[in-house]
Specification:
This protein is mostly helical. Helix content is about 80%, strand content about 0%. The longest helix has about 40 residues, at about 445-485.
């Protein structure tokens, strides 16, 4: 078992905070697409585009959270403010008014977007650079995040069957309020260490103007991009290119050993794009697939789209704790599984996962085209196994490879990779439903072939990426060996 006695003070508290802090995001992930069409007055293609843009912008602001946290905010202070913003946003989204929904989404993005990098950095800074327990802590923390997802998806699935969305949003607000209380109780354990804010900016009165100003600009920026979702996707791509160039410039100025570590981080963190694409599909294309292309029944139990999402989170919880336990055993034996190999294995699992939809369609009912709901469930379970290898490992890489002075911005860069993956999911989701504007125009027979084409292509892409990562993993693993030496 995992012993918190051997972990730094504050790790257990962060794990518990992680459970409750994800509820708002999970509820929106499970319900937003259908809520926008049922109560927001949006067409199905508008809802798909807006949902993909919403989640992509969320991860784009993760970059700002990483870049600005530790500089103009303390990580713990920014996390506190961001969760408070999410509480307010859930009440706004609960109003069945298109304008309030849009403003609520913008406020939620501002809060949720800024806080994840902060939570990761608070956890990272509890460990010394050479402490391999960090990877175990991140595996557990990733599983705790998905405990929150499971509860939220079950709640969302039940509520979706009754159409009572408001109850879900109020419940999420309550869980986020509890997060604020738990974070305040843990506040003393997660003080910034060796950051610009801690060493210099915290002593300046300018922080009282700069911090609120940045949050206000982020909110207005989010409103604009939600109202003009077509610009959001292009912005994410532009930001990715600019940040990549900037970090490459930073790498070139470093000594050879540290430069190699930066390059290794940038290569490995790019694997997050694949997970992000699946997550983007999960909140749009896969939910639509479950709704319109499956029998929505598992052993006689009705499966709403939000309920099906539960299986991915359950898988992450199970595989996350399994990976943490196996990592602990390896540490006892004086060995570790290199991150490059872990991520390669994770991408390889996506190959099997993506094959589930084409296989399900091949075995679909010939008259109606409906697919057994077990196939998207199997996809999500296998994706979960790959996700825990890719994401939990990637989250811990910052502490392994990057110096404290650069950790915030590199954590943010990892989330820009995630934003790129989600952006791609939007148009792919619209292609899958034939760009139909109305839900009643979508049929299984009319869209099965497009879903099959998409997932066959994804299978091929995952196979190619697995081969590439396998070929470079030995070289990357040597970088970690050099750190130990």
């Amino acid at each position: 078992m995992i012993s918190y006695k051997k972990m730094p003070q504050g790790v257990l508290q962060i794990n518990i905070i992680q459970i409750f802090s994800t509820v708002g995001y999970a509820v929106l992930m499970g319900l937003l697409n259908f809520y926008l069409t049922d109560h927001g007055g949006f067409t199905k293609t508008q809802a798909n585009t807006l949902t993909a843009s919403f989640f992509a912008l969320n991860f784009l602001l993760h970059f700002l959270g990483g870049a600005l946290g530790g500089k103009f905010f303390s990580f713990r202070g920014l996390f506190l403010v961001s969760v408070c913003l999410q509480v307010v946003s859930m009440f706004m989204i609960a109003e069945h008014n298109q304008t309030m929904i849009v403003y609520g989404m913008a406020l939620f993005i501002t809060g949720a977007g800024l806080n994840v990098s902060c939570l990761n950095m608070m956890l990272t800074q509890l460990f010394k650079t050479e402490d391999h327990n960090r990877r175990i802590a991140f595996s557990i923390n990733y599983s705790c995040m998905n405990i929150g997802f499971v509860g939220s998806f079950i709640l969302a699935g039940v509520i979706q069957s009754y159409g009572a969305y408001t109850i879900a949003f109020y419940t999420a607000a309550g869980c986020l309020a509890l997060t604020v209380v738990l974070h305040l109780l843990n506040f003393k354990n997660v003080e910034d260490k060796d950051t610009f804010f801690h060493n210099q900016f915290s002593k300046s009165n300018a922080r009282f103007l700069v911090a609120p100003g940045i949050i206000l600009v982020c909110f207005l920026f989010s409103i604009f991009l939600i109202r003009h979702a077509e610009f959001g996707s292009n912005l994410v791509i532009c930001v990715f290119i600019l940040v990549f160039i900037y970090l490459a410039f930073i790498a070139l100025k470093q000594e050879p050993e540290y430069r190699e570590r930066i390059i290794a981080f940038m290569l490995l963190s790019s694997a997050c794009m694949i997970f992000a694409f699946v997550q983007g599909m999960q909140s749009s294309a896969l939910e639509n697939f479950v709704e319109f292309n499956t029998n929505k029944s598992l052993f006689g139990i009705t499966m709403e789209p939000a309920t099906v999402n539960t299986f991915e989170s359950l898988g992450v919880i199970i595989f996350g704790f399994m990976l943490a336990i196996l990592s602990k055993r390896r540490l006892k034996n004086g060995t570790t599984l290199p991150p490059g190999s872990l991520i390669t294995r994770g991408i390889g699992l996506y190959i099997i996962a993506f094959m589930m939809i084409p296989i399900g369609i091949l075995l679909a009912n010939k008259n109606t085209g409906t697919v057994n709901v077990i196939f998207p469930i199997l996809l999500l379970l296998i994706v979960a196994a790959g996700e825990i290898h890719v994401n939990a490992t990637s989250y811990a890489l910052v502490g392994d490879l990057i110096k404290p002075i650069h950790q915030g911005i590199f954590t943010g860069y990892m989330f820009v990779n995630v934003a790129i993956g989600i952006v791609i999911a939007g148009p792919v989701s619209n292609y899958a439903i034939g760009n139909k504007l109305k839900a009643e125009d979508i049929t299984a027979l009319g869209t099965n072939q497009m879903y099959s084409n998409i997932f066959v292509c994804l299978t091929v892409i995952a196979a190619i990426l697995t081969i590439i990562f396998f070929l470079i993993s030995k070289r990357i693993n040597k970088v970690f060996d050099n750190i130990k030496e």
